[in-house]
Model the fold of this input.
Amino acid sequence: MSRAWMPHGAARREVGPLLRAWRERRKLSQMALALDVGVSPRHLSFVETGRSRPSAELLLSMSEHLAVPLRQRNELLLAAGYAPRYSETRLDAPGLDAVRSALQRLLDAHEPYPGLALDRCGNVVLANAAAQRMTALLPPALRQPTLNIYRASLHPEGFAAATHNFADWARHLVQDLGWLGESTGDAELAALAEEVLAYPNVAALMASPPPAPDGTDGLVLTCELQIGEQRLTLFTARAAIGAPRDVTLAELTLELFYPADVASEALLRAAATSA
Done:
């Protein structure tokens, strides 16, 4: 069996504690989950304590009710001694040509505004020309081997140095990363959160109390970047692929940036024209 399906050592862990951890993460009682999947609370208790081995169908049913991501569903199946049910296809594989082309067309149609496709950890897997123009401003160390949106935005030598409202924007990114790690139980996301929290600028920010709302906040949180003498103010929208059955596609997120004011739109259009 390929080691690609054992990223977090799930095959060496008991399925019962893993299921219990997911149930507790979703704040469900044994009674509630048992009723949802149509088994007795006693049987579910036996599964969680290792006294009973769940069938693959029961594991998938519980995973569905607990909203377990596809990657972690495979890990549960492996931990119980079953083969994984969901493929994990490289985005550049021929089988994903149609999806990859569609995503790239969507990003290119978003020009002259930046658009990115991100994997589960925020690594950039596709980008349009506007996004590439922005990321070219980063030092090479933050662009290689793979640009990560959290590192690029929070590292002291990255966009953090040019973010006018870093306190607000950084708190949003840290909370977003923490929520993703907590909701998925993903060890790589947890490691990434630990890394960015150790950045001196982020550590200092998170050690200070958050500012109290003053009633003057806008409708959406924006990222305000100082580009030379000009201010670029952006807000984002996110999208995902509907009904994915592949781990790679399930974990993809489109991050589309929009100008928040007329001056920012003019700046982006001017950059596209000059390019």
Remarks:
- The chain has two domains: 3-79, 94-274.
- Residues 94-274 form a domain with the Beta-Lactamase fold (CATH 3.30.450.180).
